Amino acid sequence: QVQLVESGGGLVQFGGSLRLSCAASGRTFSTYTMGWFRQAPGKEREFVAAIRWPLSNTYYTDSVKGRFTISRDNAKNTVYLQMNSLKPEDTAVYFCAVGRAPFLGDYRIPSHYDYWGQGTQVTVSS
Q: How does DSSP assign the chain, residue by residue?
């Protein structure tokens, strides 16, 4: 069982920045594929970014490319999502997810991940 705890959400103005953190339990964190997803009210959960084991390749949905950066610190068992130039349409609950190795699924699909955090609210005011 892997436990995930997100933090760093909050209220920010248009154009502002936030950094989300997701701390994971487990001794094999470095082998996890990690994803960030978000869900706005009345909408489905959508892929935001992923960092894939073993090469730490990163992937982003088109709407956040150039604004968001996913990274990981294996020594701290933590994955980050740096969000810059935030827009009101980025408002959502953000979730991190773990895909255990070997991750053979599609990193964009929520059901292909094994564990989820409880989510952290991000609100961007216009």
A: ---EEEE--EEEETT--EEEEEEE-STTGGG-EEEEEEE-TTS--EEEEEEETTTTEEEE-GGGTTTEEEEEEGGGTEEEEEE-S--GGG-EEEEEEEEPSS--S-TT-GGG-SEE---EEEEEE-
- Say which residues have a Cβ less than 8 Å from residue 19's Cβ, sequence separation at least 6: 8, 80, 81, 82, 83
Tokens of 43: 């909408």
Residue given tokens 């564990």 in the structure block: 115
The residues, any chain, with a CB within 8 Å of residue 118's CB and separated by 6 or more, are 4, 5, 6, 95
- Tell me what the mean pLDDT of segment 2-23 comes to: 97
Could you read off the pLDDT of 19-70 as tens digits, one per residue? Answer: 999 999 988 888 899 999 999 999 999 999 999 988 889 999 999 999 999 9
- Percent over 90 (pLDDT), the chain: 85
